[in-house]
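Q: Could you write out the predicted structure for this multi-component system? I'm mainly interested in how the pieces pack against one another.
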Amino acid sequence: MDLFLQRCFDGMFNGAIYASLALAIVMIYRSTGLLNFAQGEMAMMSGYIALVLLSAPGATGIGFSLRGTGWAEQWVPFHPWPTAIAILGAVVFGALLGAVIQRFIMRPLDGSDSTMSMVNVTIGLLIMLNGLTLWIWGPFARSFPSPFPSGKDDYLPVLGARLRYTTLGVWAVLFVVIAILGLLGHYTKTGLAFRAITSNRESASLVGVNTSRTLMIGWAAAAGIGALAASLVGGAIVLEPLTMMKMLIYALAAATIGGLDSPLGAIVGGLIVGLAQALAPGYLGIPTELTLLPPLGAMVLALVLRPHGLFGTVPVNRV
Amino acid sequence: MTEPTAAPARARSKLAFVGWLVLAALAVIPPLVASPLDLTKLSRLIVLVLAVLGVNLLTGYTGLISLGHGVFVGIGAFAMANFIDQGLSLYIAGLLATIFTGIVGVILGLPALRVRGLYLALITFGLALAFPPFARRLGKLTGGVTGRNVANDAFVPPAFLGLDDHVHIWRYASCLVVVALWFWLARNFVNSRVGRAMRTIRDNEPAAAAFGINIAKTKATVLAVSAAMTGTAGALQALLNPYVSHGDFDAFLSLRLYAAAVLGGLGTLIGAIFGVLALIIVPAVNGAIGLVDNEAVVFGAGLVLITFVAPGGLASLLRRRNGNTSAS
């Protein structure tokens, strides 16, 4: 029982990260019908920005800067920043990146309405951002400090298992994010506009909603959430140029299982994938390095049997 | 894809024939000027054309987005290595590896019969990511963590040709012949009844169903052919490179193949060649002007750019536009 509970707790940490990234993917899918394959790489760049902002010059382990130029030390005021502030900086960077990508790449493509050109562009962005990250920061794995107490004894004993503060922390952050999104969505004009676009884009623009501007804000918010996901991996997962590629597939699996247009589905899906990943090696005899398979299998199964996922809306096909 | 009327069609096919002839003539030059090492590199790129053509057949002609063709390259390569171990001749081993990959392609692609568009892209992307760790676990079949050698001692010119000192030329020519053969098969395939059904499915699936096209059967057929030719590419790759490892077939291979298919031009056979040319030219140009110390950046940017500038890929830039362009 302790072991089972412990594994569940371990899975919950990853689950929160997957859920956040899945939430970002779902936000964009809901409003534009586009699956952003570059979401993970956008998040990863932001994660590296957080590292640049928080790493003290010359510190070992995480000590590094923008290609060793000392750029960050020289130009960033009050550098190095405390972890939490650096993460905020990364979120701002991520949001800006998302807004720029929406404004200059996605918006001009809006009229084309072709699934394939959307896939091409996001795959292109994935390759490009990954290459850029590799070029700037090299192929090394960096350990990332957690903003929450992550020492050896920082846990809450629950029935003999250890519920770590980092796990509690990421879920708390996730719920705060959801609450903020909910408040923004229901009490601001932009939020209302975003919901209108989600429900029917054409009608929304007909009643005077500035769709381009609203979508840009939506992209910024989604990318910001992604950036948060990448910055919170600290303590458990090292950051390397391939990290987010794996994260992306888990997040995509989570989003698909939950239903690609359902934010609630993204959270539940993330939790399911995280738990499956933690429990499968112990109980199904699946070797650790193959933990990709259960979520992937679940995703395929979900797509084949229930393409709209657990909480998604059933699409209507008009010929 | 618009079907041109009869007269321009004949003129175009004549032009295409001349084009292929020029290409064949160009293929004679490298063995005369290139060093053995460069020739081997070139052979590898020529083999890559086949994999890009596989993506093109599925994505460009049938509209099924595949981000996982690197998996089929890997399966073909590992199958080849193991069939050779069984003491089979290269021809038989190559044929078996091709057929094997085709069958696996249909099995792996079964979900493709149900899901479309983005969802299929998702599944194939997942496959591409899952393949390397999976292959790593297969022990002796794949050489596990370190990879394994491929016995390519038999991949030498037959004695009566007297080419014993020019093994590389023989290998280059063999690859060229196999690729040309597949191109010929692919051309006939896309012009066949199934080929027309493929394009109808791509353009409008419900309409295709209404016309009485058996969607599942057509998709399964394309999957088999596409996977098989990609498997051949893998088999040849294994022979040229006589070493295969799970790391060679990571998700980036799949993404590069997809990118090459798009850059070259989806829905045209020649697009596969242009795509691989882009794979060569992009790093070369990048290296020459020293833009970024990472070719993937330029490559990804190229993929984004081409969607705006020429959605039909490089092939569409050369083709004369006759009213309706065939961007897919």
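A: Regarding packing and overall arrangement: The beta strands of chain B are 148-149, 243-244.
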